[in-house]
Amino acid sequence: MTDAFPRIAPVGLSGIAISFADTLSEPANRAALAFRAAIDSAGWDGVEESSTSLTSAFLRFDPLHLTHDDLTKRLTSLITAQDWYAAPLPTGRRHFRIPCVFGTDLAPQFSEAAQAAGLTEAEALHSLTAARPRVLTIGFAPGQPYTGQLGPEWDIPRLKTLTPSVPQGALVVAIRQLIIFSNATPTGWRHIGQTAFRCFRPEAPDPFALRPGDELSFTAITPEELHNIRNAQTTNGGARIEAIA
Amino acid sequence: MTRSLTIHRAGPSLTVQDAGRPGYLGQGLSRSGAADPIALAEGAALLGQSAELAALEMAGVGGEFTADQDTRIALTGAPMMATLDGAPLRWNASHLMPRGARLVIGAAGQGVYGYLHLGGGLATPPLLGSRSVHLAAGVGRACVTGDDLPIGPDRGKTTGLTLDPEPRLTGGALRIVPSMQTELFPPAERARFEAAEFTRDTRANRMGVRMLQPGAPFAAQGQLNILSEIIVPGDIQMTGEGTPFVLLNECQTTGGYPRIGTVIAPDLPRVAQAGPGTKLRFQFVTQETALDALRRYRAMLAGLKSRTRPLVRAPHDIPDLLSYQLVDGAISAHHEGD
Q1: Same-domain check for residues B32 and B139
Q2: Which residues form the domain of B145?
Q3: Which of A93, A235, B21, B182 has the least C-beta neighbours within 10 A?
């Protein structure tokens, strides 16, 4: 199958996706981000917006202005212009240190997630606070980051039975990825941490806190500290942000 | 001075909607906007104003309203029982709502989403270029009893127009084109999908509509291993239980369920407006057919203004018919002008 990539596929009448792999890998994610940036700077007339998922770039266009065939030709030519899998990460990346309560009744699935990963709770806590996952894509809900990849021990499946509602700011884990939820949602991902971080702030000048390429790390705090952070409201969930050189 | 619309009683899901907020897919925010964009354009045509203006979308049931100044209104989409100070109002028409007059909008007889348009449009504060509420994303909120909604300045004068709405309330065949995972459904499965008659489930909202059918569930090959991919409105997502879900303007932006196809934009209002129990089918069409449909759809929207005509009142719409002097035509001015 690998030789079938990159692959161009229609997404309805006015969308087209360029997929770089059918399983998540770091090079395929970088390829998708770089390819989207190239589409944006090409500025083709008739292209209305672009986006990425974990390993694909997507663009929406006006099919009465730019035909599928014409667009496919341009994309094919752009694909061959360089080795996208070797593309660098986006510029302007940032590192967010986010305070997080692991476990307790604020994040009740921490123990079972550690167990599923074959780790003690102490090992799991050490692993998660030492990790520096990268934002691979923003999607599903506004500003919501899919980050990774964690070590292979965290390749744990999603739960078959959904948890009816996990709150905004929840840190959840599955398939070597971590997500911070933008809004309360039902989910099959395990709720292992709770932050006061808001991925989407409709009232802010820039409502979307994170961008693909940004890196996250988590500082373990107590429920009392989380309470104080929420009351203070001086920063976004107590996050400290620095530019990645 | 700003005019405002006061909501004295709000139905369960009243939201301010315009054409939506495209351009934020990369940030995980779907476009939102009116579930029935044709209704938005029809309202604009009836009031002779821009289709960019925001209206009040009413899911299933309307509410009770007054305006603090004389205000032009239009009613489009799913027809609902409507009265102004007790006198029945025609749907798919524009009217003058005098200051303080009580507009009562009841339940939809057919279809799902009715629209109340105001001359000048609703002027709630825009966010990221649109006034559309996005319930799932937490952008804005549904209206509640007691809300006052600002109305924009209105330069128009005309009321008393009507138009024949584009038919879209009774389901039927939906034209679909391939999506990213169409090939994962074997040809026999796709043929069975096209042959099936679906009923719109009660589980439906601005995010999407679930479709039921009596046959076996539909399955893709390798269904559980699909990486999350971009979703667009119209996508027909096959959930784990093999039941299709047609996604609308407020859908999530990515998803891991396979999609068998995508309903083309011109047919999506028929999905949104299908009431519970409405029958629907899916039919793959060629790209050429789909593009032709899109071309005709845009021309239809652009030509709505020319389809408006003066509202001729039917005798049964006139509340106190016996008080009119029908023989000599000397109808008092008091009764004119609606």
Answers
A1: yes
A2: 3-164
A3: A235
B183 with B286, same domain: the answer is yes
Output the pLDDT for position A143: 97
Sheet holding A56-61, edge to edge: A7-10, A15-19, A56-61, A47-52
Q: Are A32 and A53 in contact (CB under 8 A)?
A: yes
Q: Which CATH number does the domain housing residue B217 bear?
A: 2.40.100.10
Are residues B215 and B74 both part of a single domain? no
Q: Please give the angle made by the CA atoms of B333, B95 and B266, to the nearest 5 degrees.
A: 150
Does any domain span residue B10?
Answer: yes
Q: Band of the pLDDT at A245, cuts 50, 70, 90? A: confident
> How large is the ipTM?
0.94
Taking the CA of residue B251 and the nearest CA in chain A, the distance in Å comes to 9
Which residues in chain B (241-260) have CB-CB distances under 8 A to chain A?
252-255
How many domains is chain B partitioned into structurally? 2
The pLDDT score that the predictor gives to residue B324 is 46
Parallel, antiparallel or unpaired: strands A190-194 and A185-187: unpaired
> Are both B21 and B153 inside the same structural domain?
yes
Give every residue of chain B whose pLDDT is below 70, as ranges.
1, 222-225, 313-338
Q: In what order do the strands lie in the sheet with B80-84?
A: B87-88, B80-84, B103-108, B61-67, B3-10, B148-151
Chain B closest-CA separation from residue A4 CA (Å): 14
Of the partner residues B27, B179, B265, the one whose CB lies closest to the CB of residue A11: B179
Decide if B20 touches A, using CB distance below 8 A: no
pLDDT at A34 over 80: yes
Predicted local confidence at residue B318, as pLDDT: 57
**Residue B232 lies inside a defined structural domain of this protein:** yes
Do B86 and B107 lie in one domain? The reply is: yes
Q: Identify which of B26, B234, B295 has the shortest CB distance to residue A12.
A: B234
- Position B224 scores a pLDDT of 56
Answer yes or no: is B331 within a domain: no
Q: Going from the N-terminus, what domains does chain A have, and what CATH number goes with each?
A: 2-86 (3.30.1360.40), 94-243 (2.40.100.10)
Q: CB-based contacts of B310: which residues, under 8 Å, 6+ apart? A: B160, B161, B162
Q: Is there a contact between B235 and B262 (Cβ–Cβ < 8 Å)?
A: yes
Containing B325, the helix (H) or strand (E) segment is none
> Is B241 inside any structural domain?
yes
What residues in B contact A10, CB-CB < 8 Å?
Answer: 177-180
Question: Omega before B266 cis (within 30°)?
Answer: no
Domain end position, chosen among B132, B164, B196: B164
* pLDDT tens-place string over residues A51-73: 999 999 999 999 999 999 999 99
Q: Find, among A95, A99, A187, A198, the residue nearest to A140 by Cα.
A: A187
Place of tokens 């599955």: A174
Q: Read off the pTM.
A: 0.91
Contact A13 B294 (CB under 8 A): yes
> Do B76 and B149 have their domain in common?
yes
Shared domain check, B158 and B197:
no
pLDDT band at A161 (very low <50, low <70, confident <90, very high): confident
Q: Do B28 and A52 touch (CB under 8 A)?
A: no
Q: Taking CA atoms, what residue in A is nearest to B254?
A: A140
Same domain, residue pair B15 and B67: yes
